[in-house]
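Thread title: Can someone regenerate the structure for this chain?

I was given the following input by a collaborator and told the matching structure tokens would be attached. They weren't. Posting the sequence so someone can regenerate them.
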Amino acid sequence: MSESDRRIRTTHIGSLPRTEAMLELLERRQSGESVDEGRWAATVTEATETAVRRQRDAGLDIINNGEQPRVSFNWYIENRLSGIEGEREAHMWADLAEFPEYAEQSFTTEVIDLTTQPAVTGAVEYTGTDALEEEIEAFEAALDDDVAAADTFLTAASPGVVAATHENEYYDSYEEYLFAVADAMATEYERIAETGATLQLDAPELLAIGHRNFVDQPLTEFKEAMATHVEAINEAVSSIPAEQIRLHTCWGSYEGPHHLDTDLVEMLPTLYEADISGLSVEQANPRHQHEYRAFAEQPLPDGWTLIPGVVDVKTNIIDHPETIADRIERVAEAMGEPSRLVAAPDCGFDTQAGLEMVDPEIAWAKLDALGEGAAVASDRLF
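Best answer:
Regenerated them for you:
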């Protein structure tokens, strides 16, 4: 066994606390103010360097740029696809609709108005090459010489999460819209793969739309919609080796009731149809911690790596390393192969700029605890 096979490696799920300077410029851009391009570039560079340095300090094995120049994990697409213009009222998620007072007071940010969502009013084509190249260049410049491309990843919104969070007012059907997005986003996916980094597709909609769009409908209809989203992913990544792709899905990275979430075990067979080799899914979320058993009932496909969330990203409690180790250990035992496991938090820590559920310094402390917990689990499992 190699050294990496004798221990649990660690990573995270994309977004990390943004610097104050980065948040200021993102807020100005979102409000329509002009931002000096030189200052923007310098701020992106500094913020990316900070994110990389702090990941290295935390001992993470597989790192990224922390999504520093993106306003959110999904709405950054508004500046990379054509045809997106205007805003429409956002639909309230079904679990939150049952607790409207809580929802109203808990989902506000100075950077993004989460009560609205962008609307697609024209043909969708990829126009974000310059922004993507700027992001890649800043990340590569921030890396140490001893960080191999294989130990890095870059995130991109899945076709389905783009379609689910950008209201379609142009295409004749949702399916036509979804596959148009897949065709456009393939440009971004392929460019990320060219860098040698792992492409992480952020696809929370694969699980989360169950309690957003299908709560009063049969599970079979949700599964059919989910399968269509997986088909769109496969079409968009058809030119990229599966070994270079990992996928993150979740039930929505927000502190809410989540009592209408769909059970993971029901969804795994459809997730396993994706042309990927790594799967990230929540396991620290208190609504879903029991679902480690799903991986015994529905074993991971051959050659895949599981990236279970073992750190909660919705509270300011710093997870104890022993608790993290327990979470890792029970998933590993359900799988039967701990060498196919990489430990991570449940989701990103700063998925929407300005909406920080976890204090930035506590977020970094949680990542420190992740490394400690992975070491404890490694001693137990190997």
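The longest strand covers residues 305-311.
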